TrEMBL record:
One example of a Gene Ontology biological process annotation: mannitol metabolic process
Key word NAD present: yes
Keywords annotated in UniProt: NAD, Oxidoreductase
Gene Ontology molecular function terms on file: mannitol-1-phosphate 5-dehydrogenase activity
Catalytic activity, EC: 1.1.1.17
Name of the protein in question: Mannitol-1-phosphate 5-dehydrogenase
Entry similarity comment: Belongs to the mannitol dehydrogenase family.
Organism from which the protein derives: Blastococcus xanthinilyticus
PANTHER family, sorted: MANNITOL DEHYDROGENASE 2-RELATED, MANNITOL DEHYDROGENASE DSF1-RELATED
Length: 494
C-alpha cells in the first residue's frame, strides 16, 4: 500500500469501493497495547477497534507489539504502510470485499526497543492489553490445567529484561503500581478454555516466583485489582498468500505488502469485567456477557475440534484444503456426526443460541471454497491443539458413557500424521514444538501404538484410561489396515 506518514497527511485516495478510515489517525490516542500481532489480530480485534475509532471514540488506537523475533517481516511491511493494511473478506460466491483498517497506529518489536514496549504498557493512556500468543504461550500443563514454568518464563525470571508476554505484563503492572497508575484490563484472545482465567493464573504464578527475589507484593495487588475477562473470538483467518496479494491488486487496484484475508463471519463474546476504563465495545458488535464459558465451549468443541477431526484424516486421505475435505460427502458426514453426536452432548445450554443452527452455519463456513484455509494450518502444533480442543470432548464423553469413537479416530490420525509421511510415503511438513519427544514415541523400535499416550503433558491420566486405550488401539489399527478414508467410512458405517 502506498501511503504517506500519518503526521503529514491522511490516507491517499483509495480506489472506489475500498473504504478506509474516515477518522483522523493523527489524532488517535493509544488506549490498547496488543501482544502478538498476527493474522487473527488484524482480522478481528483491530477491526472492532477500527469501528470504535470510526464512531469517534478516539482514545482506542492500538500499539501492536511483536514479542517474538519471527514477527519482524510483518512489522517491517506494516511500518512501511504506516500501520495501515487491507482486510480482504472472501465470500462464498467467490467475490472479495476489501477495506483498509487504521486502528494499528504504532508498531513495536520487543527485540528493537524493549523499553518502548514497557513504556507503552505502563502509560496511563493504555487501558487495555490484549494478546494472541497462541495456545502454547500460556505455560500450562495441558493435562492438569496447572502452571508449568517453561524455559522462556524461567529465562525471564533470571534475566534483567522481560522477553515473554507474561514477563512484560508483570513488569508493566509493577511500574503502574509504583506510579499510582490504575491497572489495565488484560484480554486474551487465544483459543483456550477460560483464556482470561488462565492468563491470570500464569501471571500470578510468575509474579509469585519473582517475589522470592523482589518481595514487592505485586501478585496480591494484581489479584485484587486487575480484571482478566474471558473471551470467545471467532473469524477463520488463513495465512496470507502471494496469490491473495496479486488478486487484491488486480481486482481493486490496492497494492498492499501484507493484507489479511478472512471469512466474512465475525464474533467476539467478552465478559463484562474491566479494571478501569472500558471501551464501548457493545456499540461495535461485541457481545458483552456475564459468563463466556458456554459460548467458548461451543466454539472450541465444535469449530476448533471440528477442524482437528477433519484435518489429520483429510490430509492423510490426500486433501490439502478445508473446503476440499468438506466437499467429500464422507468427510462432511464425519464432521457433522462428530459435532452432533460427540461434541454437542458435552455442552451446557448456550444462551440465545440454537446449536443445530450453529452447527449448520459451521458446515457452511468450512465449505466456503473462497477462504482456501489449508489443512496444514490446522495441523500445525497438533499436540497442543489435540490436547486443547479434542481431548476435553473425549474426557467428557467417557465420564458420561457417551460416544467418542470419531474424536478418538482423530487423535489416532494426528499420531499417524506426526510420523511425518503420508499414506503414499510422501513427507509431511509436520510443525510441532514437541516433535523431538513425539518422534521416538511414534517410531519406537517396538512399534507400540500406545506409547504416545504416555506423553503426560498432552494426555495426563487419560493415557491410562482403559476405555480410551482400547478405543485408541482400535482406531490406530483401523488407520493402519485401511487408510484414513476407509477408516472413516468404516466408523460411519458408510
Ligand atoms: N487464525 C484464526 O483463524 C484464529 C481465529 C481465532 C483465534 N485465533 C487465535 O489467534 C492465535 C494466533 O493466530 P494467528 O492466525 O494470528 O497466527 P499468526 O501465526 O498469524 O500469528 C501468531 C502471533 O502469535 C505470536 N506468538 C506466538 N507464540 C508466542 C509466544 N509464545 N509469545 C508471544 N507471542 C507469540 C506470533 O509472534 C504472532 O504474532 C491462534 O493461536 C488462536 O489462539 C486464530
Ligand atoms: O488457531 P488455533 O490454533 O486456535 O486453531 C486452528 C483453527 O481451528 C482456528 O484458527 C480457527 O480457524 C479459528 O478459531 C476460527 O475462529
Amino acid at each position: 500500500m502506498t501511503t504517506t506518514p500519518r503526521s503529514e497527511s491522511p490516507l491517499p485516495a483509495l480506489p472506489a469501493g475500498v473504504p478506509g478510515p474516515a477518522y483522523d489517525r493523527a489524532a488517535v490516542g493509544r488506549g490498547v497495547v496488543h501482544l502478538g500481532v498476527g493474522g487473527f489480530h488484524r482480522s478481528h480485534q483491530a477491526v472492532y477497534f477500527d469501528r470504535l475509532l470510526g464512531l469517534g471514540h478516539a482514545d482506542w488506537g492500538i500499539t501492536g507489539v511483536g514479542v517474538l523475533a519471527a514477527d519482524r517481516p510483518l512489522h517491517t511491511a506494516l511500518r512501511t504502510q504506516d500501520g495501515l493494511y487491507t482486510l480482504v473478506l472472501k465470500h462464498a460466491d467467490g467475490s472479495i470485499e476489501a477495506s483498509v483498517v487504521g486502528s494499528l497506529v504504532r508498531l513495536l518489536l520487543l527485540d528493537d526497543d524493549p523499553e518502548a514496549v514497557l513504556a507503552a504498557m505502563a502509560a496511563p493512556s493504555t487501558r487495555l492489553v490484549s494478546m494472541t500468543i497462541t495456545e502454547g504461550g500460556y505455560s500450562t500443563d495441558k493435562s492438569t490445567g496447572r502452571f508449568r514454568l517453561d524455559d522462556a518464563l524461567a529465562a525471564d525470571l533470571a534475566g534483567p529484561r522481560p522477553r515473554t508476554a507474561f514477563g512484560l505484563l508483570a513488569e508493566a503492572l509493577r511500574r503502574r503500581r509504583a506510579a499510582g497508575t490504575p491497572p489495565f484490563t488484560v484480554v486474551s484472545c487465544d483459543n483456550v478454555e477460560s483464556n482470561g482465567d488462565l492468563t491470570r493464573q500464569t501471571l500470578l504464578e510468575f509474579t509469585r516466583l519473582q517475589e522470592a527475589h523482589t518481595g514487592d507484593g505485586l501478585a496480591d495487588w494484581i489479584a485484587a485489582s486487575v480484571a482478566f475477562p474471558n473471551s470467545m473470538v471467532d473469524r477463520i483467518t488463513p495465512a496470507t498468500t502471494d496469490e491473495d496479494r496479486r488478486r487484491l491488486t488486480a481486482e481493486t487496484g490496492v497494492t498492499d505488502r501484507w493484507p489479511v484475508v478472512a471469512e466474512p463471519y465475525l464474533q467476539w463474546v467478552l465478559e463484562d469485567r474491566f479494571s478501569d476504563a472500558r471501551p464501548p465495545l457493545a456499540d461495535v458488535g461485541v457481545q458483552l456477557v456475564e459468563d463466556v464459558r458456554p459460548y467458548e465451549l461451543m466454539k472450541l468443541r465444535l469449530l476448533n475440534a471440528g477442524h482437528q477431526v477433519m484435518s489429520y484424516l483429510g490430509y492423510l486421505a490426500g486433501y490439502r484444503r478445508v473446503d476440499e475435505v468438506m466437499a467429500d460427502p464422507l468427510f462432511e458426514q464425519l464432521v457433522e456426526r462428530y459435532m452432533r453426536l460427540e461434541a454437542t452432548p458435552t455442552l451446557p445450554p448456550v444462551p440465545d443460541t440454537d446449536l443445530a443452527g450453529y452447527r449448520r452455519t459451521l458446515l457452511e463456513r468450512f465449505a466456503n471454497p473462497a477462504v482456501s484455509d489449508t489443512l496444514l494450518r490446522n495441523c500445525a502444533e497438533g499436540s497442543e491443539r489435540i490436547a486443547t480442543f479434542v481431548l476435553p470432548v473425549i474426557r467428557a464423553q467417557l465420564a458420561a458413557g457417551g460416544p467418542c469413537d470419531l474424536a478418538v479416530l482423530a487423535v489416532a490420525a494426528w499420531a499417524r500424521y506426526a510420523v511425518g509421511t503420508d499414506e503414499d510415503g510422501r513427507p509431511i511438513p509436520v510443525v510441532d514444538a514437541r516433535l523431538d519427544r513425539l518422534v521416538p514415541l511414534l517410531r519406537g523400535p517396538d512399534g507400540d501404538p500406545l506409547a504416545v499416550l504416555g506423553l503426560e503433558e498432552v494426555f495426563g491420566d487419560l493415557g491410562a484410561d482403559e476405555r480410551f486405550r482400547q478405543a485408541y488401539v482400535r482406531a490406530a489399527g483401523l488407520l493402519h489396515r485401511r487408510g484414513a478414508r476407509r477408516a472413516v467410512a468404516e466408523l460411519l458405517g458408510a
